[in-house]
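Anyone? Bumping this.
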Amino acid sequence: MVQSDEELMIRVREDNDTKAFEVLVQRHKKSLLNFVCRFMGDRELAEDISQEVFLRLWTSAGTYLPIAKFSTFLYTIAKNLCLNALARSKSLPKMQSLSEIIPGKDADKDSQSQADPADPDGSPETKLINIEIESKIKEAVCKLSPEHRLVFILTEYHGLSYQDVASIVQCPVGTVASRKNAAVRSLRRYLAPLRE
Amino acid sequence: MECKHVRNKLVGFIDNEISDEAKKSIQAHLDNCINCSRELESLRNAVKLWQCWKDIEPTADWEKELKGKLTRTQRQPETELEILRSAIIGLSQRIQKLEETQGNLPPTLESEIMTVNELARYLRISARQIYEIIEQIPKFQIGYEYRFVRESIDRWIRSMEQHEYPQSYPWRDWFAKEDNA
């Protein structure tokens, strides 16, 4: 039987169960890496921070309470580490070169066939246009304030509910809604030229 | 619903994060308002656009590095045990000290300044009874908290001893009349 994240986390907490921990890593490594990468705008840094998140998850498993959703717990650690890293760097997230962030060929084909059904063959021209669009989106998202960026990324790319985001960001649900609204409108403005 | 209110809720509407009731009234408004419908369409197109930002895949090295870091930063059950053990030892020492000093309580609990509960214990009545006669008790306040100076309380008790009935006694006036009579 497939165990829930919460059940696995309790095994980690109670028994230092490394197998349960490994399952959690396998389940969440991709989404976590993508979250940090989108938030920080730097793949190398994101790889480092996402590893640190899992290290913290292991060392602070004792503080996990079964009443909390595992994803909330994980993203709270990730958010804290990202904000710490931002405070340390005291600079805007730096943009990385596209070659660093474009996934491998196979992954690229996979994601493209899912997200772009209009263009299943993915001709080189379309790919180039997509790369350009992606670059503009990244640029726009990095222009959002950290608070707005957090809410935007968690709801838009990770499908978290406003309620879950409110627990992670530690603010009222209404604040999440207004931050999301503001973020979407700013992004639409930044990206308006792309839609013309 | 006004257009302004509807537009503020359109993002929540797309995210399915508003109540069914609000959804219904927004839908009703959208059916009759071309401008708001266009706004919704524009937001939906924007959402489609940023879905172009594809996910990246963790590399094999990422996992290797994580494993390496994990083996270097293993959670030490012994360390946790040590912490718990020292906490228990510390607590038992404190309990022992408290037990030793319990015979000489006055300087600690019912000391110079008392809380409501301490005063209640001091006067051998309930805290509720303290609140009933709070107006007559010499006290000072810190924020919403009452505090009582022991010396003033003792003086107040001595002044009470001169009366046959406590000043707070509900029928004090009635008895006083009888006394005078």
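Late reply, but here is one note on the structure posted above: Residues 39 and 150 of chain A are 7 Å apart (CA to CA).
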